[in-house]
Amino acid sequence: MSAGFDEVIHAPNRLRICALLAASSVAEFAALREVLGVADSVLSKHVKVLQDAGYVTVSKPTGRGRVKTWVSLTAEGRRSYAGHVQALKALLDTPGLPAGAPHE
């Protein structure tokens, strides 16, 4: 595949997480969970994979009231997400595939 294709980001939920975070500077864990429509454990697993890859940071600022978890893309995460999107676009623009042709 293209050098920009990223197996870590490619999983559907991780791709959606990156897309949501690319559109904002930070998102609350609960908001991500609601938008994705997944359980806390599922989101936690995907965020952990992205965090281990250096693509997101997770913070839990302390203060008054309930502690909320915030997730944001790192600079590396933004670069990798942008590269992955470019690689996907390149796949869609592959010569030899007639427009509207079914993909195997």
UniProtKB/TrEMBL annotation:
Transmembrane segments: none annotated. It holds the Pfam family HTH_34. Residues 14-92 form the Winged helix DNA-binding domain. Coiled coil: none annotated. It comes from the Bacteria. This is Transcriptional regulator. It comes from Nonomuraea fuscirosea. The lineage of its organism: Bacteria, Bacillati, Actinomycetota, Actinomycetes, Streptosporangiales.
